[in-house]
Amino acid sequence: MSTAPFNDHFSSHAADYARARPRYPDALFRFLAERAAARERAWDCATGNGQAARSLAAHFARVVATDASAAQIRAATPRQGVEFRVASAESSGLDDASVDLLCVAQALHWFDLERFFAEAGRVLKPGGLLVAWCYGGCLVDDACDRLVQGLYRALDEYWPPQRRLVEDAYRGIELPGRAVACPPFAMHAWWSAGDMLDYLRTWSATTRCAAATGGDPLQRIAGALQDAWGGARRRVSWPLTVKASRM
Q1: Would you kindly state where each structural domain of the chain is located, as residue ranges?
Q2: Could you give the CA distance from residue 104 to residue 175 in angstroms, rounded to a whole number?
């Protein structure tokens, strides 16, 4: 098991991350199961709070969910059929040709891609499916979006450089293997203004800014966001970028 340093921007608030992040759509996991050559074993790499792993377990006999962060693994909610392990993306400890599906949810941009793709080629069965997805900004309405996007820009110096790959919707990343066409997917949630602020606190740039300045960067928009939001729950949407290939 590798213990090499990794890009760790979430361990300090793993429990908040598990609670406040939006949920991936069931339709995405149905699609992956339909495209997989078999459904014996899936690997959810950089599982974080285990959200994708738990959804995969509805479609695959066994799911291995790994993360280099022990804090993230401790914060993950157990589910039957899911085995959580601490392991890096580039050194999983999985057997050769043992996985039908390898998925990476909102994490590919943190990896050493050359080493990870080599590991993917090693552990995937011939014809196995490699899938990675990411999401950028969320959408509510013009007033709320302006405030959230303004905060994003104000935190520019605190975003890790890898975030640019997400902003570019992974256009700069080419998966090995034969490309598999994917339909459009999006996440949706019905949130209060407080839910949105909790989500914004999980941004890596928010925590880095707070650590560097000793202040709460959300104070610059919290009042205005609550006023623009109103008292009701609002529909929040995140378009997903999904890339897939058959190895």
Answers
A1: 11-246
A2: 12
pTM of the model: 0.88
Average pLDDT over every residue of 35-41: 97
pLDDT tens column, 60-98: 999 999 999 999 899 888 999 999 999 999 999 999 999
CA 235 to chain CA mean position, Å? 20
What is the pLDDT at residue 7?
53
3 state SS of 85: strand
How many helices and strands, by DSSP H and E, does the chain display?
10, 8
pLDDT in tens, 106-117: 999 999 999 999
Distance CA 38, CA 124 (A): 11
The pLDDT of residue 1: 34
The predicted structure's pLDDT at residue 13: 47
What count of residues does the chain have? 247
Residue 9 has a pLDDT of 42
HSE-CB for 218 with a 13 A CA cutoff: 17
The one-character DSSP state at 88 is B
| Domain 11-246, CATH among 3.90.226.10, 3.90.550.10, 3.40.50.720, 3.40.50.150 | 3.40.50.150
